[in-house]
Every structure is written in C-alpha cells, then in structure tokens.
Amino acid sequence: MHFLSFITFALLSTFASASAIPRAATVCNGHAELCDRSYGNVTFVGAHDSFAFSEDPLALAADQRVDITSQLNLGVRLLQAQSHNHSGTINFCHTICLLFNGGTVSDYLKTVKAWLDTNPNEVLTLLFTNPDGASLKEQWDPAFKSAGIDALAYVPPSLPVAQKDWPTLGALLDSGKRVVVFMDTGADTTQVPYILPEFPNIWETPFTVTDKSFPCSVDRTAGPLANDAHMYMINHSLNKDVLGTGIDISDPWDAATTNGLTSIFAHANGCAQFADGRAPNFLLLDFVNIGEGFKAADTLNGFA
Ligand SMILES: *[C@@H]1O[C@H](CO)[C@@H](O)[C@H](O)[C@H]1NC(C)=O
Ligand SMILES: *[C@@H]1O[C@H](CO)[C@@H](O)[C@H](O)[C@H]1NC(C)=O
Ligand SMILES: CC(=O)N[C@H]1CO[C@H](CO)[C@@H](O)[C@@H]1O
C-alpha cells in the first residue's frame, strides 16, 4: 500500500515536471543515443535521384524502385534530387525532363512535408541540384513555402559550419528546425537564408562511377575550411555504360552487391584518410530498398 502510493507519487511528479519544462526529444531518428550527438557526427542514408522511382526494370532513367514516402519509411534521411526549369516551373527531372519528369518541386516538397508531419522526431536533409540556375527568390523559396518546409528549415548562426560545430539532433528537434537544406550551386543565404551552399560544408566523392571498387577521392569541395573539417558524402552508386553506347545509367543489376555491407564499408574506409578517420555523413545510394544500406549506417553509427 505504502509502496504503491509512493510509486503513484513518483509518477505524478515526473509528469508534472515534464509538463513544466519544454519537452525535450528523447528519441531522435530512432535512437535515444542520437539525441546528444552532433548532426555532423551521424551517418545518414541518402536516396540519389529520389524522385526518379519506377518499379519498371525497363525504366532505365529510374534510379529508385520505391516512391519518396516509402524511401523515408525505409529509413532514408537525405533526399537528393536534380531540378530543371521546365517551361518556367521547377521540376525534378533526370538529366532532361523528357527522360524522367518527377513533377514539380512544390508537389515533391508537399509529399515530404506530409511525412515530416507524421514523423515528428526525425531530422531530414534535402540536397538539391540547380543546374539551370533557377531563381532562389522567385522559384525555390515559393516552392518551399507552398509546402511549409521553409518554417522547419535550419539556419546556422554563421557559415560554413565545421563538421564538429553542428547542433545535436536533439537540439534540432527541440527547436523545430529539423530540416537541413543544401544546394550544390547557386545558393545565396543573403537571398534565402535556409538554402545552404553544399560544398563549403560537405565534400563529395566522384560521381558517375563505373569502377565497382569505388576508389575514394575528394571530388567536389570548397573552402575556406579544410576537407577534414567538412562533413562528407559518398556517392555510392554504380553506373553502367548501356550496350557500349557511351550512355551511363544507374546499374540495377549490381545493386544488391553495390548496396551490400562489403562494398559500402570498403568505400567508407577508403575515404577515412580524408576525414580524420571519420565515417561518411551521407551514404548516397541508388535503389535504396535493395541491399543493406540501413544496416551499414547503423553499424557506422555504432548500433549494430
Ligand atoms: C562520429 O564520431 C565517432 C567517434 O569519434 C567516429 O568513430 C565516427 O566515425 C563519427 N561519425 C561521423 C559520421 O562523423
Ligand atoms: C525558365 O524558363 C522560362 C520559360 O521557359 C524562362 O522564361 C526563364 O528565364 C527560365 N529561368 C531560368 C532561371 O533560366
Ligand atoms: C553517380 C551519382 O550518384 N552521382 C551523383 C553524386 O551526387 C551528385 C549530387 O550531389 C549528383 O549530381 C550525382 O548525380
């Protein structure tokens, strides 16, 4: 009797104090341990050309087999996509819009926002390319606003952010700013503060790789920080020349091997020399539903 009422008292006071202070996230991206870890010290799985999904194995311009919501539900926490100016509207397209038109950026972001709303304890990164130089103020910002993602996007106090200086996942979640947006070229935070320039913060390995051993080198980067003070992304997708045509496409036939632990760990190990021994921050994969990308990330994060 005595003991039970003590328990009741303890429970009640726990609830009372929890409601008195702002609620702090206790599970972050699925793991309590990640709440106290810097965003710059976490390995996330990324989906390359996330919009370019098709179940049809003959859709050669498709780099994914499952849709964006399914990619997120599988555990993808970086969505990469290539934009194009399609008659004045920005769309996500593969190389050219005729080849694979993934729809408008605005519709894409609305899909992502719906997922974010039902998954409040998740930090997500968006990495968009802007080869047509679409306007930040006239095209990108309105697309983000139409989906309501601008309000969730993190704006660092200053740029670039060194790998060790990023806030913890818990801090990002508690602040409500749990989406980190990068753009490869043309970002200008004086125009749109939450679209961050990729290369001063993240370096990348080469792309359109056709060598299955994925030799690591620092391909795209920008100063002023040293490479080992950047986060980094391995572009871990294999391309294949279709029937000797000189046209490289993503290789679905080798996806299970490419996205297997052996291949991913070998690539990561090859890169550690450029990153003060650290694991990659982002494993950018094609066909994320095939292979063991999520297990690889768990292992690199120390969970498996
Ligand atoms: C995080 O830090 C640990 C300990 O220094 C390191 O082993 C790991 O590779 C780091 N991961 C990333 C993605 O920086
Ligand atoms: C986008 O396309 C429209 C119409 O084709 C054109 O008027 C506009 O200048 C283009 N924008 C950029 C940034 O190229
Ligand atoms: C082959 C491959 O995955 N290439 C991609 C590497 O990442 C950049 C984006 O940051 C893409 O533009 C490439 O398509």
From TrEMBL:
- InterPro entries for the chain: PI-PLC_domain, PLC-like_Pdiesterase_TIM-brl
A Pfam entry, by short name: PI-PLC_X
Q: Which UniProt keywords apply?
A: Signal
Region forming the signal peptide: 1-20
Question: Does the keyword Signal feature in the UniProt annotation?
Answer: yes
Transmembrane region(s): none
- List, alphabetically, the PANTHER family matched: PLC-LIKE PHOSPHODIESTERASE, PTHR13593
In Swiss-Prot or TrEMBL terms, this protein is called: PLC-like phosphodiesterase
Q: Which organism is it from?
A: Plicaturopsis crispa FD-325 SS-3
